[in-house]
Design goal:
The chain has strands at residues 2-11, 17-22, 31-40, 48-57, 62-65, 69-70, 82-83, 91-98, 104-113, 118-120, 128-130, 136-142, 152-160. By secondary structure, the protein is mostly beta strands. It has one domain (2-160): Jelly Rolls, CATH 2.60.120. Strands 2, 4, 5, 7, 8, 9 and 12 form a 7-stranded mixed beta sheet that branches. Strands 1, 3, 6, 10, 11 and 13 form a 6-stranded antiparallel beta sheet that branches. The chain starts with a strand and ends with a strand.
């Protein structure tokens, strides 16, 4: 399997969207999302934080470009997803500088204590598969913006299937 990670650390957050991935055109593989995490290193005060996994169509966030890294170094191919700031099809990014407007659907909602962090590893029957040529992208979102906005780390793992 072709597996990739998008991960960043030490980020300051000013918008809701932490990571954004938008599947590529139909000739490319589907994306199966297998793991998500969030952690924070600047706060020693206990606080609850909401997190959402959502799909968004018709409008996408403006993000900082991030290139997916291979989880299998022997894989000769890069991901079909490339880093970009626009959030359009076939692109991904982190740490939004502008959140999207428009239609979105929250499909997983949770909360965590910032001292402990958050890890979501869905069972195989619960993984989210975004089809190639989907009209929606997937966002890992902290809603509302955390009280402490510095020193966040977050990431996700996906498989091209």
């Amino acid at each position: 399997m072709r597996e990739f990670v998008i991960s960043v650390g030490g980020q300051s957050i000013s918008c809701l969207t932490a990571i954004w991935v938008n599947p590529a055109a139909a000739v490319n593989p589907n994306l199966e999302f297998m793991r998500f995490w969030i952690g924070q290193a600047a706060n020693a005060t206990s606080a609850q934080q909401r997190v959402q996994l959502k799909t968004q169509s018709s409008s996408f966030p403006t993000v900082v470009s991030a290139t997916p890294a291979k989880l299998k170094p022997a894989d000769p191919n890069a991901s079909v997803i490339t880093g970009n700031t626009s959030g359009l099809a076939g692109m991904c990014g982190v740490t939004a500088t502008l959140d999207p407007t428009g239609t979105n659907t929250v499909y997983w909602e949770d909360a965590f204590n910032v001292l402990n962090g958050w890890l979501h590893v869905p069972t195989p029957a619960e993984t989210k598969v975004m089809p190639a040529s989907s009209t929606s992208g997937l966002g890992l979102v902290m809603n509302p913006i955390p009280a402490t906005t510095t020193s966040w780390s977050y990431g996700l793992v996906y498989r091209e299937v």
